[in-house]
Specification:
Layout (H helix, E strand, L loop, with lengths): L2 H9 L8 H7 L4 E3 L5 E3 L2 H8 L4 E2 L32 H13 L12 H13 L7 E2 H6 L1 H11 L6 H14 L8 H28 L5 H7 L9 H32 L1 H9 L4 H11 L6 E6 L3 E3 L2 E3 L4 E4 L1 H4 L34 H18 E2 L2 E2 L19 E3 L2 E2 L2
Parallel strand pairs: 2-8
Antiparallel strand pairs: 1-2, 3-5, 4-11, 5-8, 6-7, 9-12, 10-11
Pfam families: p450
Organism: Streptomyces sannanensis
Protein name: Cytochrome P450
Amino acid sequence: MTQASLLRQITDYANRADPYPLYKELRRTPVLRDEDGPYLVSTYWEIQSLLHDPRTSSDARNLATTGGYGATPLEETSLPPSFIRLDPPEHDRLRRMAMRSFGPPHTPRRIHDMRDALHAIVTDLIDGLGNTDRIDLVEQFSYPFPVTVICRLLGVPREDEAHFRTWADIIAASLDPVPGEDPTERDRTTQQARNELGMYLAGLVEERRRKPGEDMLSELVTGKGPDGTMTTMEVLSTSVLLLIAGHETTVNLITNGMLTLMRHPEVLQRLRNEPGLAVPLVEELLRYEPPVQLIPQRTTIADIEVSGVTIPKGASLWLVLASGNRDPERFTDPDRFDPDRKDIQHLGFGSGIHACFGAPLARLEAQIALTELARRLDNPRLLEDPPPYRQSAVLRGPRHLHFACDGIRP
């Protein structure tokens, strides 16, 4: 196996179900230069350092080279770039304004106070699973749950949620293209959905300007702080970021979580009996099966030496988070799923200035979802293992997760 072939294999769909042996091989060369340009960094401490290094950029305009094997971007819209695509100081200004509306210290109870609403959504979805001989967790639970949550968070009226979900479904599908699908038609449909979503959100923004509510969109529109107020386009970019990045990653976190639990029935039983286990269990899942496997959008804005290798200015930099999470130099017995693991400073939500700003909500969604699924599903068992995976090597998770159970408890 040549070093150059490793990247092709990691991004090859044939290895989507289990890329971890490839990551192990990749870590033999902590900084690997692919023949087409990208530098891959695969070891924990080196990734952590680069995530905090101001000489790395998230702005694609700083990229001097191109190269990649169909890595799906986490966010791609026709709107101006959101703050995850920007560098300081503009990144910092927009992120601070978004965080005012999302959590501590300005709205410290926003996520906590959503607990009852999240539980109600989960209950309704489990009640509606239907025939227990064959359930698709993705289609019937993991997929609709986060988008409903985002609708409630933004303040989308209940009667409009179905339209919002339709647009979200189309945009999400564009991030995970089906082989053989007509790209022209897909792009046309996706662009139409983005335009319709943008027009809908723009109308909602104007409505909230006239009559603010208790929702996050109202606070984004009317919030005033040291950084001023977001423009309409900035509000739209931030809202779409929350929809796409927040929805896609949470779907994978929950689905990967249930897949792991059904592969470890003794842990599933523990969660059923010990609901408090959900908190450390979700952290271990974020290490063991992270929903975002790698970050392919970083660029160096100066020469950087990493593990004896000089990565030149303008290079494409791929940070393989999932590999760092399995680095034996950082975690003991890293290929073992251990919800009792004490040392759990994983890279599942990134780190540094671009650490996932939706992490508190994603954690709570996963904790409630997995706890209730464990409690209510009687003897759940996989119908196919491995399941079919999505195409994306970045946003890795099952496209479907078919299982059966003996019944659904009240």
